[in-house]
Amino acid sequence: MPMSKWFAFDIHVNLAPEKPGVYELSDTKQVIVYIGKASTSIKSRLLSHRQMKRFMKVKYFRFRQVKYPADASKLEHELCAAFKKANNGKLPRLNKRTPPKSVSSFWD
Fold first, then answer.
1. Which residues pair with 32 in a beta bridge?
2. Hey, which bits of 1-108 come out as E strands?
3. Residue 1 domain-assigned (yes or no)
């Protein structure tokens, strides 16, 4: 299942699913500025970003719902790796690090 279409953050954030998944945030030109995951609720995670100053300029979001939280971790890693490959090894500007492939690999 591909990512959803882009949604205007301020208008549609309350329509995001309360399910686990991954999401991408973008600026006014729909340039991805952050890739993240939600272990329980995409909607709650998006709303938490609105409270952080560094995310105030985010204008759009898109998401992909998954069945299991571990799938969200794996997909987040894959999205970040694909972004880095397409952007000379750089992450989106608001991401600080590449996420681990899975929760278990984080602790290994």
1. 26
2. 7-8, 21-26, 32-38, 60-65
3. no
* Structural domain containing residue 74: 7-107
Q: What pLDDT was estimated at residue 106?
A: 42
Tens-place pLDDT, residues 75-84:
999 999 999 9
What residue type is assigned to position 66 of the chain?
V
Q: Please report, for the domain that includes residue 12, its CATH number.
A: 3.40.1440.10
Query: For the chain, how many structural domains are there in total?
Result: 1
Work out the burial of residue 42: count CB atoms within 10 Å of its CB; fewer than 13 is exposed, 13-18 middle, 19 or more buried.
Answer: buried
Residue-wise pLDDT tens digits, 9-65: 999 999 999 999 999 999 999 999 999 999 999 999 999 998 898 899 999 999 999
Residue carrying structure tokens 């999401």? 23
Tokens of 72: 């969200």
Q: Considering the domain boundaries, does residue 2 fall inside one?
A: no
